[in-house]
Design goal:
Largest sheet: 6 strands, mixed
Helix content: 25-40%
Structural class: alpha/beta
CATH class of the largest domain: Mainly Beta
Shape: rod-shaped
Order of helices and strands: HEEHHEEEEEEEEE
Strand order of the largest sheet: 3-5-7-10-11-9
CATH topology of the largest domain: Jelly Rolls
Strand content: 25-35%
Number of strands: 11
CATH architecture of the largest domain: Sandwich
């Protein structure tokens, strides 16, 4: 191939590359290996395919919710009975006491619990943990007391003054 032909081929290749990189949503470059769509065309097709399969608004809403959640924190040790507070939301409370401990769940009017609040509690001492309801309803299939040492339970807010408690709980009579 002569120098002149090499320069012509190089110019043709640059033109094709320019079309692939900078072409609009309808551009396709004809190459020796076959047709190659422009990046804009590929992105438009991807957006159309993803839009048909996924609810983009719902995905963005869930991503925003994830960003708003508090960052994970170290285990918080609880050694005595007390009321639960807003700072306990999304926390892991390790209850370490030889005697029984009562954690009181206050009403929405007292603590502005955010939607979907969860509080993780585990009895790590010998004393059982009881969740007491203060003007709230706690739904559970068993009692409001941990079963034994090592028992983990989770409080989940379902709505204003409506919670569920599940995990390793003492059986109801």
């Amino acid at each position: 191939m002569s120098l002149y032909n090499s320069v012509e081929q190089f110019e043709a290749d640059v033109t094709l590359a320019h079309l692939i990189v900078h072409g609009d949503e309808n551009a396709t470059a004809e190459t020796e290996g076959g047709p190659v769509d422009s990046f804009a065309k590929l992105m438009a097709e991807l957006r159309a395919a993803v839009g048909d399969e996924f609810d983009t608004a719902a995905i963005l809403q869930r991503l925003s919710a994830l960003e708003a959640k508090p960052a994970p924190v170290p285990v918080q040790t609880v050694a005595a009975s007390r009321a639960l507070v807003l700072a306990d939301a999304s926390q892991y409370l390790a209850v370490d006491s030889a005697a029984a401990v009562t954690l009181t769940l206050p009403a929405q009017a007292t603590v502005a619990w955010p939607d979907n609040t969860e509080i993780y509690i585990q009895q790590i001492g010998d004393g059982q943990v009881t969740i007491a309801a203060s003007a709230v309803t706690i739904i559970t299939e068993e009692t409001l007391t941990t079963r034994k040492k090592g028992s983990p339970v989770t409080l989940k807010r379902l709505g204003a003054d409506l919670w569920t408690l599940f995990g390793s709980l003492e059986a109801a009579a």
